[in-house]
Amino acid sequence: MSTLIQPWAFRGQRLVSTRALLTNRAIVATARSLLATFSTLPALHHRIVADFRSDTLTKPTDEMIKEVMLSASRGDDVYEEDDSVRSLEHHVAQLTGHEAGLFCASGTMTNQLAFRASLLTPPASILCDRRSHVYRYEAGGLAAHSQTTVYPVQAIANKGHHITVQDLEREFVVDDGDVHMAPTRLISLENTLDGTVMPLQEVQAIRRFANENKVRLHLDGARIWNAAVAAGCDLKDYTQEFDSVSLCVSKGIGAPIGSVLIGNRGLIKKARHFRKMFGGGWRQAGGLAAAAHWCIDNVWPTMKETHRLAKYLAEGIEREGRGASIYQPVESNMVFLDLAGSGMLLRDLSQKLKGKGIRIGNEDAAESQTQVRLVLHWQISREAVDDFIEVVRDLAEVSVREDRVSSPSEEDDESETNGKKQQTVYCRR
Ligand SMILES: *Cc1c(COP(=O)(O)O)cnc(C)c1O
């Protein structure tokens, strides 16, 4: 195993020395002053990307490409001969307390591979939160790839914050020989889900429930990095409770592309086989793996700062927004904003923000759409957040002057979750 880590350890050392060297150059001084309020970031690799639509929109920096990707190994991953890929897989397996890992192109692929490799014999069904990505936003992949049906679970307790054992019990399909049924074979959790963090005790309770009922437990951990940071626990505390975990590196971690599936050797071997069958076997993927590895080691430690900035944005909007509200607790990097009652239109807000180089989702929203999801990531600066709050304040002032502030409307086709009327704000791109 240690031979797998060595090439990377060497590269890591080289990187540090290159960065130390570059730090002395005068050109860095300007970048430094820009970063004064954001000092925990690895300065040389920081770049400002004021895009709040999603944390997938981080951009690889020139340095990441020149220093990290360029020095990656160039072996063939289908031959399992690329050191950077194997080093990343090993690294994530270690961090999560599992035997093996598989680096893939997307989180959809790692989720779908986990299901396909776990659910070998139909008829079968899975249980997951009805808001889950695997159920709603993976193009019906579960039905297509794994011949599986889903029983979506509604979170009822805790104001719908997260599903519980009681919620799962309601939908659980027992394997009792009834030919009408597709027995539950797997439970899939998502953490964070819409930016909210599932408490570790609940995950542990669900693990016990899964054991008692002899079903597998999968985690869509696209943002488990955020959950662990927000909960203040070790990544392992969460991930070791699962049979398989999908972790995105292309979101909060800030890597250009990819997702890692982890589990035991048998599962990963099967997943690798299915990945080839799905056409996802890739060749010289080392550059991408090296970037992901670097980002885990260097960007992940800045995540706490990102979460703090999300809270700061939410507080600023509530303070200056004159009726604009944050309708979900800010627990990690997402802020859910509702303009209803403030008299501001989402379209106007987005136009004004664009003038400052800031982008948000639902840019050409209809007038009835008042809600939007704002996502923060490591390349969003404190300055961009201050600009954001300033735009909200200016727009809110206009709204008050023109007497457009009202009490929130109750119409529209909205669904109820978290005890709040909600519109569809998920950014699907
Ligand atoms: C983004 C995301 C995925 C995977 O998305 P890809 O675009 O396929 O990488 C899976 N689950 C959740 C919760 C996500 O947010």
From TrEMBL:
InterPro entries: ArAA_b-elim_lyase/Thr_aldolase (IPR001597), Low_specificity_L-TA-like (IPR023603), PyrdxlP-dep_Trfase (IPR015424), PyrdxlP-dep_Trfase_major (IPR015421), PyrdxlP-dep_Trfase_small (IPR015422). GO terms for molecular function: L-allo-threonine aldolase activity. The modification N6-(pyridoxal phosphate)lysine is found at residue 251. Gene3D superfamilies: Aspartate Aminotransferase, domain 1, Type I PLP-dependent aspartate aminotransferase-like (Major domain). Keywords: Lyase, Pyridoxal phosphate. It comes from the Eukaryota. Residues 51-339 form the Aromatic amino acid beta-eliminating lyase/threonine aldolase domain. It holds the Pfam family Beta_elim_lyase. Residues 420-429 have a biased composition (Polar residues). GO terms for biological process: glycine biosynthetic process; L-threonine catabolic process. Transmembrane segments: none annotated. Its cofactor is pyridoxal 5'-phosphate. GO terms for cellular component: cytosol. Residues 400-429 are annotated as: Disordered. PANTHER family: L-THREONINE ALDOLASE (PTHR48097:SF9), L-THREONINE ALDOLASE-RELATED (PTHR48097). Belongs to the threonine aldolase family. This is Threonine aldolase.
